[in-house]
Amino acid sequence: xxxxxxxxxxxxxxxxxxxxxxxxxxxxxxxxxxxxxxxxxxxxxxxxxxxxxxxxxxxxxxxxxxxxxxxxxxxxxxxxxxxxxxxxxxxxxxxxxxxxxxxxxxxxxxxxxxxxxxxxxxxxxxxxxxxxxxxxxxxxxxxxxxx
Length: 147
Hints:
Order of helices and strands: EHEEEHEHEHE
Number of strands: 7
Low-confidence stretches: none
Helix content: 25-40%
CATH superfamily: Gcn5-related N-acetyltransferase (GNAT)
Number of helices: 4
Protein name: General stress acyl-n-acyltransferase
CATH architecture: 3-Layer(aba) Sandwich
Shape: globular
Largest sheet: 7 strands, mixed
InterPro entries: Acyl_CoA_acyltransferase
CATH topology: Aminopeptidase
Organism: Bacillus zhangzhouensis
Strand content: 25-35%
């Protein structure tokens, strides 16, 4: 099936929130100046995946709220990650963080170039989303620097 990536608009917020809640992720998303979402839609315009980038400061960003449909393969997820990273780099972000709550996602994130951090940078604590995610028992912060 054909999928298209695009940057979400404020009008997409209700659809993204419903998709996040269906995927058991926290809703309450607003498309704001510091947070941008990339959505993946099928040929019928139905949401199949989303990933947000919360800009923490000029050079650092937090990848957040990844939810994907069971229709998507690993290649689609890689494409979503790469699109968000490219978007971040265009905004000046050269260091990306992600909070992983499931050990199963660590292998995939390692393939994407993320490495676990022992010490969480102060900039990550600025994000209310990161703080909430870090409350979970198995939460780990991973980092990736742009090449």
